[in-house]
Design goal:
Strand order of the largest sheet: 6-7-8-3-9-10
Oligomer: single chain
Largest sheet: 6 strands, mixed
Radius of gyration: 17 Å
Shape: globular
Length: 219
Amino acid sequence: MTESVVEASALTVSRGGEVVLSDVSLRVAPGERLLVQGPSGAGKTTLFHVLGLLEPPDSGTLRIDGTDAAALSERARARLRRDAVGIVFQDFQLVPDLTARENAALPQEHAGARDEDWLDELFGALDIADRTDHYPASLSGGERQRVAVARALANRPAVVLADEPTGQLDPDSADRVLDLLLSLQAETDTALVVVSHDRRLAERFSDVRTLADGALETR
């Protein structure tokens, strides 16, 4: 059996006495694609933050690329996130005073090793090679999202997590960005976890789960 890149068991998160995630368990192996769907308020973004090591669960276990995240210090969790997890945020979260290439290179800068050839390859594959020196304000929504995808893949992570990756795009841009993301994911054998309320995405994923009232349907 292939070792899972993401292995979560009985994750629970509560806020203000209200359960946001309830006993959530899932596994994603290298090269696999998991889509987590559900309505607003279902807990999708909280699950995204927990899987992305952006916040710890109240209880449960989480292993990323074979490492027990719960046993790590905050600094070690940040290193694991930098090295093993690529994150595509819903609102892109590009740094406005950095160029597209500088934004994409941030994970490499934090790791202390630039790989210019890989950045060239990513920008070419994402069809934004002519936008490398442009700042986010001069890019379209689809171009900003492609830069965010390049940044997520910059350190060749074991898993890419994407929060509503098509949510702020028009349908044509959304389709193009998703096509490119899935193509790059397949080429690199990276695990992919997408959280979205967009029902159109389901046909592109072999594993689709529904999150409702903090609980993930099991299959």
